[in-house]
Specification:
Layout (H helix, E strand, L loop, with lengths): L16 E3 L5 H12 L7 E3 L12 H6 L7 E3 L5 E3 L1 H11 L12 H18 L12 H21 L14 H21 L9 H10 L3 H19 L2 H4 L2 H5 L10
Parallel strand pairs: 1-2
Antiparallel strand pairs: 1-3, 3-4
The protein binds glutathione.
InterPro entries: Glutathione-S-Trfase_C-like, Glutathione-S-Trfase_C_sf, Glutathione_S-Trfase, Glutathione_S-Trfase_N, GST_Omega/HSP26, Thioredoxin-like_sf
Organism: Chlorella variabilis
Protein name: GST N-terminal domain-containing protein
């Protein structure tokens, strides 16, 4: 792909191009669909920095997604599709005949998968930064409590028989959730003292064990863990003052 940095408008990649970094759970969700459907030859994957040194805040990137967030999928005609759920729906539709459909088999099961996706998008993604961004301690603790509550909500959404979100087959419902659970399982015990992410959430616990057996999910999880290892090496939680906040025992960081 050739990127013309001299212009912000009219960027037209040769192939559809998914902009996002490896550690981003939102971008990871879309990479899983590409890997699962064998679309790596059809769709390029690129970091936002390719469009400018400020990454998602570069003028060229903001021209594609004014929200300054990743991922964004840019089509060869220049149309930009931001929002991971929108990109996912587009990929499932556009490449419906390629590889697995990733759609659960019944309207009810598709409803369950869509509900998991909606809960993530409306109630979890907007506050996930409490695990790794700078903010005051009270807000962080409140948002961690909200994440714990939303995990309980998701436990109730899971198909009773499982093991996947919408039944016996992996689907777009699992794809919505599992990258965010990489953050939960890696960050909450290590940095906020959670004994387990799955205490009192047996369906999610069984699901997490199963979803990691999917080869493409395992690949995405490894990519995200590598990005998180970089955050650890740079001492992100110390540098942003998060470790110092957590040392204040007057907050219930483990949300129990
Ligand atoms: N609703 C959006 C959320 C996008 C989002 O929050 N992306 C994060 C990464 S997971 C991001 O771009 N963070 C960088 C930033 O906020 O500057 C989606 O699902 O795509």
């Amino acid at each position: 792909m050739i990127v013309d940095r001299s212009t912000h408008a009219g960027f037209k990649p040769e192939k559809p191009t998914l902009f996002g970094v490896m550690v981003s759970n939102c971008a990871a969700r879309n990479r899983w669909v590409l890997y699962k459907k064998g679309l790596e030859g059809e769709v390029d994957i690129a970091p936002p920095r390719l469009l400018g040194d400020k990454g998602t805040k570069s003028p060229a990137y903001l021209a594609l997604n004014p929200q300054g967030k990743m991922p964004v999928l840019v089509l060869p005609d220049g149309q930009a599709l931001p929002e991971s759920a929108v990109i996912e729906a587009y990929l499932l539709d556009k490449y419906a005949g390629v590889g697995p459909s990733l759609l659960p088999p019944t309207p009810e099961a598709r409803g369950r998968a869509a509900l998991a996706s909606q809960i993530l998008g409306l109630y979890i993604t907007p506050i996930q930064g409490c695990m790794y961004k700078q903010m005051d301690a009270t807000q962080r603790c409140d948002q961690l409590q909200a994440i714990a509550f939303q995990m309980d909500v998701l436990e109730g959404v899971m198909d009773p028989q499982g093991p996947f979100v919408a039944g016996s087959e992996i689907s777009f419902g699992d794809c919505a959730l599992f990258p965010t659970f990489v953050f939960f399982t890696e960050i909450l015990p290590k940095h906020f003292g959670w004994a387990s992410v799955f205490e009192g959430r047996p369906k999610l616990e069984r699901w997490w064990a199963e979803v990691q057996k999917d080869p493409e999910a395992a690949r995405v999880i490894a990519e995200m863990r590598s990005g998180l290892a970089d955050w650890e090496s740079s001492k992100r939680w110390d540098t942003l003052g998060i470790s110092a906040q957590v040392a204040d025992g007057s907050f219930n960081w483990s949300c129990n």
